[in-house]
Design brief:
Helix content is 29%, strand content 22%. By secondary structure, it is of the alpha/beta class. The structure holds zinc ion (ZN).
Amino acid sequence: MPEQCPVCESASTAAFFELKNMPVLIGTLWETAEEAKNTQTGDLRLLFCADCGFIWNEVFDASRMAYSATYENSLHFSSVFQDYTADIVSRLVDSYDIRGKDIIDIGCGKGDFIAMLAEYGDNRGVGFDPTYVGDRIDGPVAERLRFVRDLFSEKYADLRADLLTSRFVFEHVEQPVEFLHLILRGLGDDADALIYFEVPNVRLILEDLSVWDIIYEHCSYFGPESLSAAFARAGLGIYDIRETYGRQFVSIEARRGAADSRPGPWGDLAQLTGLVARFEAEFGRRIETWHDRFETLRRDGRRVVAWGAGAKAVGFLNMLELGDAELPVVVDINPHKQGTFLGGTGQRVIAPEALVEYRPDAIILMNPVYKAEIARQVADLGLAVEFIGA
Ligand SMILES: [Zn+2]
């Protein structure tokens, strides 16, 4: 019996990727290498729906996930990401005239995004996040912001909203259409808030064979095809879908009761189907290539570190089973991550300045988008290294 697609209910679904024993909490900071290495693991079995393009982990077990306030997933410390976010803020505020209005942000993290929206458009905002720890927003904008340490639901239907945003939440949701219905109920029956969602773009993962972007915490994987399918199913009219940030993300702008801005379909389902087939065939080869590369580096006695202690690094190191003997440390510019340890393989996270002590010969860039920024920092430290893109 094929599994039914959680987005479009089609039975044209098939498994194409399996992986055992991946750390379930990618963003969790561990205080000791011991704790990091003993972190809980889970399995992945990804299914693809040939009718809407949705990809999901069929053996995902939400009970393994326990988000806590130590969950540190803020990309906010990179200036590249900050510029990108500022562009989204000005575009949303300017094109939809979100000024002096009310905004709700679902999964607000530390509140960076909603603070920027409130600041730029002189708006009021309520951020929802069960892991919210409020200590980073200051200035006059703080008075127009409120944070709720809870999941958004119909409990909050008395709140009004002209714009509802949610960045990097939908990929953690097992039942996407139900989640959208929950949000619409939370907004109230007659609400017509503009809805803005942003998620990792599975098309790029498949095209680039970037297998490290497949992580346990993400039970759902969207491209333009499935994102539009889920929103359409929930009765939302789609204004725009964009592949952004070097195509790493895909965003959607939609509104209940609105007409689609153009006739569908969004994306290219036939091409996506081909990418899934290729990914299935190439995954093993990709892992082998990296094992060979590390073997060569080891034989040549070259010291290797990684840069970027995010989800990609945890996926990369665990899929390649690279312990702290093969790769001792991972660099990250986020001071909240420094001094902690990566789940599963147990590498210590260090500040860029500490590289002077390690004198690496090569740095694996977990996210090549930041190459120019990283190369500049490394040059400033007086280090000459080879950069390898992950
Ligand atoms: Zn489907």
